[in-house]
Structures are given as structure tokens and as C-alpha cells.
Design goal:
264 residues; Udp-n-acetylmuramoylalanyl-d-glutamate--2,6- Diaminopimelate Ligase, Chain: A, domain 1; 2 domains; six-stranded mixed sheet; four-stranded parallel sheet; 10 strands; metal ion binding; GTP cyclohydrolase 1 type 2 homolog; DUF34/NIF3_sf
Length: 264
């Protein structure tokens, strides 16, 4: 059975109203192209595109943008050698790239958050899913112990933590991606009686500084930042598993990039 890019995208977006100003789009690629194989990844990096070509996959489904801008603003890149070489690679492989960002965050529960919770084996501890956060009651552990567990489960070399690392935590809010800023994270401590927020990233002068002041005042509140990719990549891994079940005749691969930052 022939399957086209358009049919895969329609499957991914079925039942969800098109988000206003969505960044989700197929570019490059022709909707009626036949799918030879699918790769999912957090981002369509040079490495991911090269690996997709080696695997014979002609459709990459990426959560984040290709050219270093959420809104795909390429001003100033026209003569940049990195941009030009990557553009040449994409053209030479003939791969189609579908940005799958806004729709998957509107799944119920959020498809990216669900992937992270599954990777952590924390789904049994979920009390409820809200649009931007999942509220959990986990077995009590210290901030330091939870940080170590996160690193082991996600196979990442480090996380960043703020607060008293010896404080015991059981009420946890999990926010993926760029949801660790003050507006999204800080109210949760009072509204949900949280001990700990686990987020991807956010401005360093917002929630971390709130945690600094809370600890100074004698309040037991903590924050762990996983990193943007580290918090969202598991969602794209889960997507690959689901596409394999939905389209068993197609080769589907999840490609994991190495963490972009190194500890020096």
C-alpha cells in the first residue's frame, strides 16, 4: 500500500483544530510524495539528516525547526556557510521535513510530556494532566536523589538544580520545553502545593531566583532543569513507537542526538 507524506501528516493532526499561527509545516517536501521510511527526532540536525539518508528514510518528523529559529526566520543566514551546507545536504538527499510542534503539544495529554513521563516510568504517579503541566505524586525522595534518577532514566550527563538538594519531595510538576519561566512555573508551587518543578528550560533570572528567595525564607521548594532537548526528545521517541504500530509496513526510526552542551 502506497502511503504519502500527506496521509502521515493527516494522521498526526487528526481531530485537532489548526493552531493559530502554527509553525507546523512540511518544508521541504511534496505532500503526495510516497513515504519510503520515517525518522523522528527532536531536531533535524545535520547528524539526523545524514542518518536519515543512510537509513533510506525520506520523511523526517522533527519537533523543532531546521534553521535555528522557532518562526523559521532566516534573515542573516543567506551567506552563512553552515546554513548553506545544511541546505545543500537537504536538497541532495531529497528528504521531506515535517515540523511537528504545535499539534503534538495539543494532544491530550500533551504528546511530548507523555513521552517524558513514560521514559521516567512515572505515568502511574500522575494525578492529572493540565495543558502545560502534569501534576504528580511520586514516592518521597530528596532533590539530589531525583536528579540522579532523571539522569539515569534519560541517559544524560547532567541536570541543573536549584534549592536545598537534601529536601524531601513528593509533589512534582513536570513542564517540558521552554515552560520553566516564572509565569508558567511559579504559581504552581502554591496552586498545586508542589515541592519540586521539573522543566526543560526557562530564563535563569525568573524561576531559579524565586527558588533562591524561597529557600532563604525557609520554604522547601526546588527546581530541576533538564534542558530543552532532554525534556522533549522522549516525546519524539514515543511518536516513533506509535507510528511503527500505525504503519507496520513502513520502517520508522527514532534518532537521538547527543546533548548539545558539554560540561567543561
Amino acid at each position: 500500500m502506497t502511503l504519502t507524506f500527506r496521509q502521515v501528516i493527516e494522521h498526526l493532526t487528526a481531530g485537532i483544530r489548526k493552531p493559530d499561527g502554527t509553525v507546523d509545516r512540511l518544508e521541504p517536501g511534496a505532500p503526495e510524495s510516497e513515504v519510503q521510511g520515517i525518522v523522528t527526532a527532536f531536531g533535524a540536525s545535520q547528524h539526523v539528516i545524514e542518518q536519515a539518508a543512510l537509513l533510506g528514510a525520506n520523511l523526517i518528523i522533527t519537533h523543532e525547526g531546521v534553521f535555528y529559529s522557532h518562526q523559521d526566520n532566516r534573515d542573516g543566514l543567506e551567506n552563512d556557510p553552515v546554513y548553506l551546507q545544511k541546505s545543500s545536504l537537504i536538497a541532495s538527499t531529497g528528504v521531506g521535513i515535517y515540523r511537528f510542534h504545535d499539534y503534538v503539544h495539543r494532544y491530550t495529554p500533551d504528546g511530548i510530556t507523555e513521552g517524558l513521563l513514560r521514559e521516567l516510568e512515572w505515568e502511574p504517579y500522575v494525578e492529572r494532566h493540565l495543558p502545560h503541566v502534569s501534576i504528580l505524586s511520586i514516592p518521597s525522595a530528596t532533590v539530589s536523589e531525583i536528579a540522579g534518577y532523571l539522569k539515569r532514566q534519560l541517559h544524560i550527563p547532567y541536570v541543573r538544580a536549584a534549592g536545598d538538594l537534601s529536601a524531601a519531595c513528593s509533589r512534582v510538576g513536570v513542564l517540558v520545553g521552554y515552560r520553566g519561566g516564572s509565569a508558567a512555573a511559579i504559581p504552581l508551587f502554591e496552586q498545586e502545593s508542589l515541592d519540586l518543578v521539573i522543566a526543560g528550560e526557562g530564563p535563569e533570572w525568573e524561576t531559579p531566583e524565586y527558588i533562591r528567595d524561597a529557600v532563604r525564607q525557609g520554604r522547601s521548594r526546588a527546581l530541576i532543569m533538564l534542558g530543552h532537548a532532554e525534556s522533549e526528545a522522549p516525546g519524539m521517541k514515543l511518536l516513533a513507537q506509535r507510528l511503527t504500530l500505525q504503519f507496520p509496513e513502513l520502517p520508522v526510526h527514532y534518532i537521538q542526538d547527543q546533548p548539545v552542551f558539554q560540561i567543561v
